[in-house]
TrEMBL record:
<feature type="domain" description="ANTAR">
    <location>
        <begin position="1"/>
        <end position="36"/>
    </location>
</feature>
<dbReference type="InterPro" id="IPR036388">
    <property type="entry name" value="WH-like_DNA-bd_sf"/>
</dbReference>
<protein>
    <recommendedName>
        <fullName>ANTAR domain-containing protein</fullName>
    </recommendedName>
</protein>
<dbReference type="Pfam" id="PF03861">
    <property type="entry name" value="ANTAR"/>
</dbReference>
<feature type="region of interest" description="Disordered">
    <location>
        <begin position="42"/>
        <end position="72"/>
    </location>
</feature>
<dbReference type="InterPro" id="IPR005561">
    <property type="entry name" value="ANTAR"/>
</dbReference>
């Protein structure tokens, strides 16, 4: 999902996940699960309005909806 949302290669997406994991002391698999659930619920931002990867992951993990993801 990070590859598509941020137009990065898989190695960069993996580095983003690892960095967020290290910064927040959370397991990568838990972060990935939140990302998958958010995408399934259409809570990820649109590609053209995506904030930084860290901000997106932080928002999704805290359960705060992203305004860019809301229809309207």
């Amino acid at each position: 999902m990070l590859v598509q949302l941020y137009s990065v290669d898989p190695d960069t997406a993996w580095a983003i996940l690892r960095a967020f994991s290290a910064d927040t002391n959370r397991k990568v698999r838990d972060i990935a699960a939140v990302l998958v659930e958010a995408a399934g619920d259409n809570l990820t931002p649109t590609r053209d309005r995506a904030p930084s990867p860290h901000a997106t992951l932080d928002r999704l993990y805290s359960g705060t909806p992203d305004q860019a993801a809301q229809p309207g």
